[in-house]
């Protein structure tokens, strides 16, 4: 009998030990829910010029325990610096914002992680040159003072579409981030971010007459990036890669967002299927290479240099090489056996496109 009494007391004690932190967390996040939401809205407006609208807020204890989480539902963000008729920059069915629980109990609001679910980032430049994405230059005000501080370690993204349209030039970039995780480690003005997950590239359309790159392409990505906040640039290092149609492509990239806004991307695949590689190109290049059949894997190297925010077309340099390969060119069924070759394709912005093949 005494053993049963002791057992019940132990179970009761364990229950109390487990429930007390949960009840404290629930009380704290519920108590500060309204204040935290208002702070987030005010800070977005004063720091970036964003007008945030939220339909409802909910408290979640177990989504990112031991952090306390507020779920914001049916969220939209518009820029106060753009016309009132401009579409929202961002919309999402829900955003979960997780706060450090210990600091929350001391009324210090520090965001550790954010989860975005089912929405879109829409960047539009209409035919008159008007945009919907003008923002106030970011400062350190989001990290200091009595407002919400951001010490992000993880960002989860589920079914968020990046949609950029330039109606002046008929350019379009559409990428759906199906399920991605961004792990962040920041130190001063230096931010290291590891990006992993699945995405669908709807299209990369730079020039309608040449057609889109990567049309309806599924990809698995692993990207190690370093962001230099002072220099407004970021670097994707050589350990990064994308898997597309079971082919692995190594990636290196450098993006400049200062005065010379430019993207440089290098892609390398030592042993790639020729047809699969060609399918990643734009309509014009696919048409030019459609009459060539290569039986064995080839080495592919590509460099893309694209201006950001300018009307100029991107430059594309591609080389393909193979050894002891079997090739068929044109409508003839006569193969060229055991051929070693190197092919070059250059698309130099508005200067045109050239294709060379040597053996």
If you had to describe this structure to a student in words, what would you say it looks like?
The protein has 359 residues and is of the alpha+beta class. Helices cover 18% and strands 53% of the residues. The protein is built from 4 helices and 16 strands. The chain has a 16-stranded mixed sheet that branches.
Q: Approximately how much beta-strand content do the residues carry?
A: over 45%
First-to-last CA distance: 92 Å
pLDDT < 50 runs, ≥5 residues? 141-145
Helix content: 10-25%
Treating each run of at least 4 consecutive H or I residues as one helix, how many helices? 4
Counting helices, strands and paired strands, the structural category is: alpha+beta
Tally the beta strands: 16
Q: What is the arithmetic mean of pLDDT? A: 83
Major sheet description: 16 strands, mixed
Dominant shape: globular
| Series of secondary-structure elements, N-terminal to C-terminal | HEEEHEEEEEEEEHHEEEEE
Rg from alpha-carbon coordinates: 26 Å
Quick take:
This protein has 359 residues and is an alpha+beta fold. The chain has four helices and 16 strands. Helices cover 18% and strands 53% of the residues.
Describe how the helices and strands are arranged.
Layout: H1 2-48, E1 50-60, E2 68-79, E3 90-99, H2 101-105, E4 110-125, E5 149-166, E6 171-187, E7 190-205, E8 217-228, E9 233-244, E10 247-256, E11 262-272, H3 274-279, H4 283-289, E12 292-294, E13 298-307, E14 315-329, E15 336-348, E16 353-358
Parallel strand pairs: 4-5
Antiparallel strand pairs: 1-2, 2-3, 3-4, 5-6, 6-7, 7-8, 8-9, 9-10, 10-11, 11-13, 12-14, 13-14, 14-15, 15-16
């Amino acid at each position: 009998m005494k053993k049963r009494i002791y057992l019940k007391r132990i179970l009761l004690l364990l229950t109390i030990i487990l429930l007390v932190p949960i009840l404290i967390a629930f009380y704290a996040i519920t108590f500060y829910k309204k204040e935290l939401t208002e702070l987030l809205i005010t800070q977005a407006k004063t720091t970036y010029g964003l007008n945030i609208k939220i339909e409802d807020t909910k408290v979640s204890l177990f989504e990112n325990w031991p952090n306390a989480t507020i779920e914001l539902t049916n969220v939209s963000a518009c820029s106060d610096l753009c016309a009132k008729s401009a579409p929202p920059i961002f919309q999402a069915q829900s955003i979960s914002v997780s706060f450090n629980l210990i600091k929350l109990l001391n009324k210090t609001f520090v965001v550790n992680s954010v989860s975005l679910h089912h929405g879109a980032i829409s960047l539009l430049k209409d035919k008159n040159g008007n945009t919907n994405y003008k923002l106030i230059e970011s400062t350190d005000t989001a990290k200091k003072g009595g407002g919400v501080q951001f010490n992000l370690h993880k960002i989860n993204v589920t079914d968020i579409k990046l949609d950029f349209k330039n109606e002046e030039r008929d350019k379009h970039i559409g990428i759906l981030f199906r399920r991605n995780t961004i792990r962040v480690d920041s130190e001063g003005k230096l931010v290291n971010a590891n990006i992993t997950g699945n995405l669908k590239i709807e299209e990369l359309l730079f020039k309608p007459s040449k057609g889109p790159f990567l049309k309806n392409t599924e990809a698995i990505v692993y990207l190690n990036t370093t962001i230099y906040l002072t220099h407004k640039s970021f670097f994707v290092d050589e350990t990064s890669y994308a898997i597309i149609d079971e082919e692995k492509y190594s990636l290196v990239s450098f993006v400049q967002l200062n005065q010379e806004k430019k993207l440089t991307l290098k892609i390398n695949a030592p042993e790639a299927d020729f047809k699969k590689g060609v399918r990643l190109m734009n309509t014009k290049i696919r048409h030019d290479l459609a009459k060539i059949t290569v039986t064995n894997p080839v080495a592919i190297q590509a460099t893309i240099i694209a201006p950001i925010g300018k009307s100029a077309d991107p430059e594309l340099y591609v080389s393909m090489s193979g050894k002891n390969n079997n090739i068929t060119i044109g409508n003839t069924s006569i193969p060229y056996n055991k051929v070693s070759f190197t092919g070059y394709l250059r698309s130099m912005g508005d200067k045109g496109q050239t294709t060379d093949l040597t053996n």
